[in-house]
Amino acid sequence: MKDFKKKTLCYLVKGIKKKDFTSEEITNFFIENSKNGKKLNTFITTNFEKALDEAKNFDKNKNYEGLLSGIPIAVKDLFCTKDVKTTAGSKMLNNFIPTYESTVTSNLWKEGAFLLGKLNCDEFAMGSSNETSFFGNVINPYGDKIIPGGSSGGSASALAANLTPATIGTDTGGSIRQPASFTGTVGLKPTYGRCSRWGIVAFASSLDQAGPMTQNVEDCALLLEAMSSYDSKDSTSANIKVDQYTKNLTDNIKGLKVGIPREYRVENMPDAIDVLWKKGVDFLKDAGAIIKDVNLPHTKYALPSYYIVAPAEASSNLARYDGVKYGHRAKGNNLNEMYENTRSEGFGDEVKRRILIGTYVLSSGYYDAYYIKAQKVRQLIKNDFDKAFKDVDAVLTPSTPNSAFKVGDKKDDPISMYLNDVFTVPVNLAGLPAISIPAGHDKNNLPLGLQLIGKAFDEQTILNLSLAIEKRASFKRQITEWWK
Amino acid sequence: MSIDKDTVKHISKLARISLDEKNVDSLSKNLSSIIEFIEKLNELNTDKIIPLTSIIDASLTSRKDEAKNENIRDKILKNSPDKNAEFFVVPKVIE
Question: Are strands A290-294 and A257-261 parallel, antiparallel or unpaired?
Answer without folding.
Answer: parallel
